[in-house]
Amino acid sequence: MELLENRMGYSFKNNAILKKALTHSSYSNEVKHKEKTDCNERLEFLGDSVLSVIVSEFIYKNYKQFNEGILTRIRATVVCEGSLYELSSKLELGSFMYLGHGELISEGRKRKSILADAFEALLAAIYLDGGMEKARKFLLPLIKPEIEKAATGLNEDYKSLLQKIVQQTPEELLEYTLVREEGPPHDRYFTFNVMLNTNLLGTGRGRSKREAEQLAAQEALKLLGIIDEES
User: Which residue in 26, 65, 133, 197 has the most C-beta neighbors within 10 A?
Assistant: First the structure.
């Protein structure tokens, strides 16, 4: 398990809870007459809540421009089975799973549902072994790119709308300029200005260049009276 711990960036004090997180019910059912082995279903239950708390806190603090409805949609996008499967695949979690014979021969190590559930169980195991801060430190570097992708995708395409308006006057020049980069590489913020000729129309700050440009375009559209101030 040392290889997995190296990939996770976390070493367990209690190795038994790590094994439990990686134990599928098919395995525990097969060996129950030989040894007492608990499966990861209860840990999965807890991990679902730990995951939701960490993601909710992060998007609440970092996406202040979004209302409750959009925050909920971002969270739903990144805590779904498909997203968790991708995160478990980055860790190659399937190769460490304890599976019953039936699951092994039916490629259970690659099954989305098994790997997504195991990721939640693993997160819960870290939480129980090391506390919430350790769980947060493990999860956020993995899931932040998914959050940023979801936030950008849900953001209305203000850039395209602004471009269409400006193109009605061909001689006008619309340009986005990076004015500031802040923070370490793993927690970077970007600030962009959007200029119409020499006039500043809007400024946006976001966790990716695309998001910052979108927010700058949104401010420009407000200034031009195309969208209202509450958009």
Answer: 26
The pLDDT score that the predictor gives to residue 161 is: 78
If you classify domain 169-224 with CATH, what class do you get?
alpha beta
91-105: b or e for each residue (b if 16 or more CB lie within 10 Å)?
bebbebbbbbeebee
Q: Is 172 a catalytic residue?
A: no
pLDDT tops 90 at residue 168: no
Known active-site residue 120: yes
Active-site pick, 120, 129, 148, 219: 120
Per mean pLDDT, which range of 49-53, 94-98, 159-163, 167-171 is the poorest?
Answer: 167-171
Which residue carries 């919430």 as its tokens?
Answer: 132
Domain residue spans of the chain: 1-156, 169-224
pTM passes above 0.85: no
Distant-in-sequence, close-in-space partners of 121: CB < 8 Å, separation ≥ 6: 20, 21, 22, 40, 41, 43, 44, 47
Look at residue 8 in the predicted model and tell me its pLDDT.
95
The label of the residue with tokens 């200029």 reads: 195
Instruction: Say if residues 216 and 192 touch (Cβ distance below 8 Å).
Output: yes
The dihedral of CA 18, 22, 27, 28: what is its sign? Answer: positive
Choice among 38, 41, 48, 81 that is catalytic: 48
Residue count of the chain: 231
pLDDT for residue 92 is more than 70: yes
The answer to whether the CB of 57 falls within 8 A of the CB of 74 is no
Predicted confidence (pLDDT) at residue 228 exceeds the cutoff of 70: no
